[in-house]
Structures are given as C-alpha cells and as structure tokens.
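Memo to structure team: turn this sequence into structure tokens by end of day. - J.P.
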Amino acid sequence: GGRALAVKLPKFAGILGRGLQPERRFGTELADQARLYGKVGGIFHTDELPGYGISEEEADKLRSTIGAAEDDAVVFVVGDKERAELALKAVVDRVNQALQGVPEETRRALRDGNTEFMRPLPGAERMYPETDIPPIPITRDRLNRIRRKLPELPEQKVKRFIKEYHLSQNLASRISLSENVALFEEIVKECFADPTCRVDPTLVASTLEETLVSLRRDGVPVENLNKKHLEGTFKLLSLRKITKESIPQILSALARKPREKVEKILDELGLKAMSMRELEGLVSGIVDNNIEMVREQGEKSHKKLMGVVMKEVRGKADGQLVSKLLQKKIKRCLSK
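Reply from structure team:
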C-alpha cells in the first residue's frame, strides 16, 4: 500500500554523498530531516546508487522518469503518500537552507563524537511546550479519565461542607483552603462511620482552624500534634469522658508531651468529665448556698451563678449542660 515519491535537486549531483563528519554525509543530514518530519525510515538518493538492491539501469530509468540531468541529484522515499510528501518537503527545505549557508539549529551529540539534527534553533517568539517532544494525541477517553481524577475545587468543597457538615460559610471557606482540610475530613468521616460518635463537625473545624492557631500564638508547639492525638481527643469527647471546654488544655499538654496517651494526660490534668450525678449535686449545692440571691434576682441570678459553677467544674462539664441544669434548679426554687 506504499508509494515511491521522488524529488529532483538541480545541480546537486555528488553533493549528497559529500562527507561532513566522519561517517556522515550531506545525504545523512537530509535523512535526519526526513525521519523527523515525515516519520519515514530514511531516504534513497542517486549519489549512493547503484546500491541497496537498485541496479545502475534502474537508477538511470529513475533519472529519466523524473527528468533529471547528469548533474542533478534525485531523492526518493518509500512509504504512505502523506508521510512521503512530508519527508520530501523536509529534504527540499534543508537543501534550500544549505544554499544560504549553515542553518541555525540545535544538534544532539552522538557517542562517536559526531552530531545530528534535533530541531531548529528557537527564535525570540518561541514559547513552551518543549519542542523536542513529539505531539501526543489527546483522546476523549483520556480527557474523561483526567476529569474524573481532578481534585475538588475550593468553591465546590465549601458548598459540600455547608451541605454535609452544616458548617458556617466563613468556617467552610477557611477549612477548605487550609492545610488541615484533609485531616478535617478524615476525622469527621471516621466519626460519622461510627453510629455512637457525637462529635460536631463545626467543633472539629474550629479546633483545627482556631484553637490550634491560638495555642501556637501562646507558644505551644502544636507542630508536635498528629492525627492520632486529635482523633483520640475527639473520641473521648464523643464518649463524654471530656468536655469541649477542656480540649485546648488537653491539646496543649499533648503538644508538650506528644508521646503520652490522651488518657494519661487527662489523669495528670484532672479533666475527666463529671458524671451527671456529680454535676447535678454541684449545681444544687451552689444554688442552695445562694438561695437569697436567687429569690431577690429571680432568673437574672442565672448569669452570676453560671460563673460560679463553671469556676468549680473547670472544664470537666459542658457549658450548655451546666446552663440547662442551673436554669432548671433556679426555676424549681422560685416555684416553691
């Protein structure tokens, strides 16, 4: 299915066989161009004929067919029509360059000390991509594979965080651009996979983006904290063994003693969460000790007593729970 195409090079007889480097002739330079631009195996030219199985009679017939005189050279290429035409065009272009002098080009060093053509020397207008690399066809299937593997855009991540995790717009925007975003999703997803987990994603995000930043400003070496420290802390919170108010203290201690287990840190800090019975007893005792203020100020006494209770619990009870128990106790006293 191939064709043999030829081109006449007027007055070039004997020049194609002239040596330019050891074992390299001008015809070799033309062959390099043909292989690069036409993707053919090489060229034949009359300076090396007869040869390659072509007789002198056949060479003369070739000259006659193409109308070449004795001082003309003939180059021919065998291959499919499109490639052969590109190869011969490259040959003609290189011959025309030779009429002007030595072309400006980039050459590749060979092991034998010679050089060969790589590409034209780039001009001032050259822009990458790299010209040494042949074009690679991009198929629709490849585009689809790339599209499926593209990372989620920050704006898409923000919308998803708001929808799935109910984060505020501000917090979702911050965590989506944070270096902690992967850690946030790992912690939240692992927690969501456990039906007993009750950790609020907002708390996880605010801990990573606000609490850790605050601790770093205070000189705490938060870079010592890892995923295991954070997951362990949130797991204890889920099990109600600690309160969210105690998280800064726990993380601060873990950062300073990163090899310690979270449970041991709790014992050292005395931050184990109070039981409901202990908390109810504490709230009742404080209200009873301040009963006169409660009767005088009514429900307004809640604010003052809240401060007293929280000072006593010192991170061992959830603030919202304390507030509810305190309101319930005050109302009970006022109803008597």
